[in-house]
Amino acid sequence: RAKTTGRNRLQVYCDEIISYHSEHLYMENQLRKALERNEFSIYYQPILNLKSEEILGFEALLRWNSKDLGVVKPFDFIPVAEETGLITPIGEWVLYQACLFNKKWSDKGENHKVFVNISPRQLNHPNFLEKLKNILKETKINHDNLCLEITESAMLNDIVHHSKVFNEIIKLGVGIVMDDFGTGYSSLSLLKNFPIQMVKIDKTFIDDVETDIKDRSIVEAIVNMSHVMSLKVIAEGIETEEQMELLKECKVDFIQGFYFSKPLPSENVESTLLNNKFL
Ligand code: C2E
Ligand code: MG
Ligand code: MG
Ligand code: MG
């Protein structure tokens, strides 16, 4: 047995690489066809004002139901879309749909924000601003209603370029949220130097916020620091009433989480808006 282990291990290793690559390639090929096959949809998760309990807006979250692969989770396909560059057309589709959705509701007198995730690759594309302007024009969304969610790490890879792009975005009247805050370098100078309006604290700090004094201190520090810089704070991934109460004490401004609503298919948003009662 000992004699063959080395070879077997190599064999298993090679098989794994081959199967990883072929699965990856398969997914990539399916992803290429997904837009034209109409396999994507967008779910909307409400974000609430913690004090007034009113809806601030909805985060647009992409869903993929592939004809051949079934339901694939964003954490599995977004990285593939990012690596291959497919995120650019896909992300553009999400942005367009999310703006249309917002315009439809604001026309019915339900004026709220829509938060759209923008991947680093999409943001770095030379046509990004032009595409954004076209979408704003075509959908006629109220510009202040749109908020782009950009992760901290995406902001870091080219600070000079990104400051320029961000300033252009702000000039259009569109807002910027720093997503997943706390998971990357959490650079304070980013908060100071970028024209953002909101910070979204990552779920990993919320999970044990009632029991782990370190998490609680981190949340308090982020809130204090953000408020000093006139930034609003959203906490994501709230699953219990206890977490919510604690975040209230920490003076978090807005919350998002399964505790009051999972992401909803767009056809279920209406009844949510009509009831407008979560807590
Ligand atoms: P994210 O932007 O941080 O979005 C929040 C994620 O947390 C969503 O996962 C949401 O469903 C989940 N979530 C919200 N509240 C709770 C909670 O109380 N408990 C738990 N366990 N989860 C909660 P989702 O929809 O699976 O998306 C995962 C990630 O995929 C997103 O993280 C975002 O980075 C990316 N993503 C989703 N849609 C898009 C898109 O249209 N474009 C891009 N570039 N990325 C997207
Ligand atoms: Mg997000
Ligand atoms: Mg996030
Ligand atoms: Mg996250």
TrEMBL record:
Domain EAL, residue spans: 24-277
Q: What is this protein called?
A: EAL domain-containing protein
Origin species: Aquibacillus rhizosphaerae
Q: What is the lineage of its organism?
A: Bacteria, Bacillati, Bacillota, Bacilli, Bacillales
Of the parent protein, the shown chain spans 708 to 986 of 986
